[in-house]
């Protein structure tokens, strides 16, 4: 037995870790970053919540606000704390709650230190968009830089830039594939060299050169400078490079927010798969420990009870909300893939001829974990059995009709339509707004022009749009306009302006 009862010490954790590692490597063939496991208190876990799961972050008032909110909710019993938090870094840091029982410590080690860790290291989006070996160093640099700016320029001045940049960080990422993976250390060094070069080559005589008249400005009739590379989807990047009034330190602060947002960009697109992978891994490992006699029946029942609570999908009328529990659907799909590989039905063979009955569940899951994101994973692997188990059907809500229409049920065409609809609910193109900078008259009135391409019925919330546009105008230093345009017809659906 690895342990008996609920008590544990660090020797127990070491023994459990070694046993879990053997199964993870020998049976599941998991490839992970080096692990670092830390045991923390509930208050320290609240601290981790405030910094989005990272062990360190730059100072900002919003962190304190989140801490107080979470602390009050926790003390009043309105929210619980996670059993663990794991960080996509190398070494991969897993925080374990000290209140966990021995079984829960073993379970979360399997879940976080091996399930999530393997997914972080092997999924294509994480490999292309993040560099876990450098994120902690960059966050340390960011915290130090922000602190020095506060000492030199004042807390209020720094907060003004951070508040505006935070409001725009959702539009501060490059979304399209093919971009070079961010090398945070190289970015940091390149920026230092660029600023040192600017300081060395600065000549005050350029200040005396007559300014170009507005009617002599470069660009076409719209006044755009062709060197700006418009349209530009990454608003923070454009501001960092081109905002007329920003000081060098302000551009660096925007850069910090932008690179941090870019690092976290893949995670919402992989929530379903990431949690499904980790839950399936910990369930497999705990069952194997029980089969090998390394944990007793009581520990196995505790693990089953915890897993069952996590993967419960509540109905819309039971507080389940409008979306799927990622643990529930993710675990169900991972388990279903393993079943199709080993004991397929005729239906499975018809729907998944490429891997049904191949007797390589681990290899098939490895391929899925590495090559897909949530949207494409659902589109490829959601089976009729899982659709039936979750009792899914599709409603069409036509505003022109006084009723709802059930247009997809449990038949051949219905399964495909339901699968397509579920997949589209994870499409980042649907979940995020397509807003681009389309014009910037740097030689004239300095007006910055943005365009939101959408469709009728999917417009921005007016109050949020005005507040966010005000933050954008704060960073740009001049007037900003935003037009909402029908993506199909080009017709203008609405407009906003901030000065």
UniProtKB/TrEMBL annotation:
Residues 434-486 form the SpoVR-like C-terminal domain. It comes from the Bacteria. Residues 7-427 form the SpoVR protein-like N-terminal domain. It comes from Kozakia baliensis. This is SpoVR family protein.
């Amino acid at each position: 037995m690895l342990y008996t009862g609920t008590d544990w010490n660090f020797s127990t954790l070491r023994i459990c870790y070694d046993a879990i590692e053997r199964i993870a490597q020998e049976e599941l063939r998991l490839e992970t970053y080096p692990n670092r496991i830390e045991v923390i208190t509930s208050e320290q876990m609240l601290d981790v919540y405030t910094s989005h799961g990272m062990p360190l972050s730059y100072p900002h008032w919003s962190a304190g606000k989140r801490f107080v909110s979470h602390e009050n909710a926790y003390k009043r019993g309105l929210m619980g704390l996670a059993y663990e938090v794991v960080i996509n870094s190398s070494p991969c840091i897993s925080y374990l709650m000290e209140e966990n029982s021995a079984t829960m410590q073993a379970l979360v080690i399997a879940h976080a230190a091996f399930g999530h860790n393997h997914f972080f290291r092997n999924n294509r989006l994480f490999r292309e968009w993040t560099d876990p070996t450098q994120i902690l160093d960059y966050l340390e640099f960011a915290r130090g830089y922000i602190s020095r700016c506060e000492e030199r320029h004042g807390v209020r001045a720094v907060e003004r830039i951070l508040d505006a940049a935070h409001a725009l960080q959702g539009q501060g990422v490059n979304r399209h594939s093919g971009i070079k993976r961010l090398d945070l250390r190289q970015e940091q060094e390149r920026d230092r060299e660029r600023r040192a070069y600017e300081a060395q080559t600065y000549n005050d005589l350029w200040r005396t050169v007559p300014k170009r008249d507005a009617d002599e400005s470069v660009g076409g009739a719209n006044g755009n400078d062709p060197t700006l590379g418009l349209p530009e989807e990454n608003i923070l990047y454009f501001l960092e490079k081109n905002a007329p009034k920003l000081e060098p330190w302000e551009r660096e602060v925007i850069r910090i927010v932008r690179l941090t947002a870019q690092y976290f960009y893949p995670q919402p697109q992989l929530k379903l798969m990431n949690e499904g992978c980790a839950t399936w891994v910990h369930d497999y490992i705990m069952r194997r420990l029980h089969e090998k006699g390394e944990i007793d029946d009581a520990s196995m029942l505790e693990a089953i009870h915890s897993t069952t609570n996590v993967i419960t999908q509540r109905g819309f009328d039971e507080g389940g909300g409008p979306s799927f529990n990622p643990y529930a659907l993710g675990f169900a799909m991972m388990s279903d893939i393993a079943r199709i590989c080993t004991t397929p039905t005729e239906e499975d063979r018809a729907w998944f001829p490429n891997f049904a009955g191949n007797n390589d569940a681990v290899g098939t899951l490895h391929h899925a974990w590495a090559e897909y994101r949530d949207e494409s994973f659902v589109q490829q692997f959601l089976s009729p059995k899982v659709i039936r188990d979750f009792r899914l059907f599709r409603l069409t809500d036509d505003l022109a009709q006084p009723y709802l229409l059930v247009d997809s049920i449990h038949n051949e065409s219905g399964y495909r339509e339901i699968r397509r609809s579920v997949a589209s609910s994870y499409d980042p193109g649907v979940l995020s707004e397509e807003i681009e900078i389309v014009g910037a008259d740097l030689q004239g009135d300095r007006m910055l022009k943005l365009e939101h391409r959408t469709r009728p019925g999917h417009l921005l919330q007016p109050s949020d749009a005005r507040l966010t546009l005000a933050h954008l105008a704060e960073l740009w230093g001049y007037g900003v306009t935003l037009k909402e345009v029908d993506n199909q017809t080009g017709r203008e659906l609405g407009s906003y302006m901030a000065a």
